[in-house]
Design goal:
mainly alpha
Length: 250
């Protein structure tokens, strides 16, 4: 199905995304530039965590490394999704590889749209109410780091929703979203078993298991709601882009 048919059908979540091989050159350059710049930025931020500058942070040592934190897991997954987007751009036009990469990039981007926003919203809400979101929260961090992982991540997800051509929020992406939530909840329990505590001070202050279950339920509901927001916006956004001159056969 081409982009015009996908938009006219209302962007049904069962449809695969049109392959972005026939975008006009200026539009193709714009989207590729965005994905490339975002991928390089995210990669630079991710690699900083492996440098001596990050050694003072609690996440740099011990079981789980920085993957103890949902923010870092989400940021890592977004970096991978942006890499898939770049690969889809440069794959040979008309080939099966390009179509598969476009579908994988679409599913990954849609699955992570809710996660990026949940991470940002929950971080700022909990920080404002308790002042202690993560271990070692009092330790100095580069100012650009907090912006990248607690604002830039969500902004990038929204920009990708606007520029991705299109974003379908397919059942595959929905299943991946649900699996991500379940996997991290299980991972948190593993971390608690190994370290004797959760990597989040506020979570350790909640009663077990009621507090943990309640927080997970609230986070999952917010995650689902944001996924639905993305799904509802995807088709109207595509129609707007097409009226602005985005090629219908992209």
């Amino acid at each position: 199905m081409d982009a015009g048919g996908w938009a006219e059908s209302g962007g049904r979540p069962t449809d695969d995304p049109p392959c972005p091989s026939s975008l006009s050159s200026p539009l193709a350059d714009l989207v590729f530039a965005f994905h490339s710049a975002a991928f390089l930025w995210f990669t630079r931020v991710w690699l900083w965590h492996a440098t001596p500058a990050a050694a003072a942070l609690p996440g740099s040592a011990g079981f789980g490394w920085f993957f103890r934190y949902l923010t870092f897991c989400s940021f890592t997954a977004q970096t991978g999704a942006l890499g898939l987007c770049c690969a889809a751009h440069v794959a040979p036009a008309g080939g099966k590889a390009k179509a598969k990469l476009a579908r994988a990039a679409d599913d990954a981007s849609c699955a992570l749209f809710g996660l990026a926003n949940v991470v940002t919203l929950m971080y700022h809400a909990i920080e404002a109410s308790t002042g202690g979101v993560v271990e070692g929260g009092h330790l100095a961090r580069p100012p650009w780091l907090g912006f990248a992982v607690h604002a830039g991540n969500a902004a990038t997800a929204w920009a990708d929703l606007a520029l991705g051509h299109p974003r379908t929020f397919s059942p595959r992406a929905a299943a991946a979203s649900a699996g991500t939530v379940a996997a991290y909840c299980a991972w948190l329990l593993v971390l608690r078993g190994v370290h004797g505590a959760f990597p989040y001070p506020f979570l350790n202050a909640l009663p077990m298991p009621a507090g943990f279950v309640g927080l997970v339920a609230g986070g999952a509901a917010l995650f689902w709601a944001l996924f639905q927001v993305g799904r509802r916006l995807s088709a109207p956004l595509l129609r707007v882009k097409m009226r602005a001159g985005w090629p219908a056969d992209a």
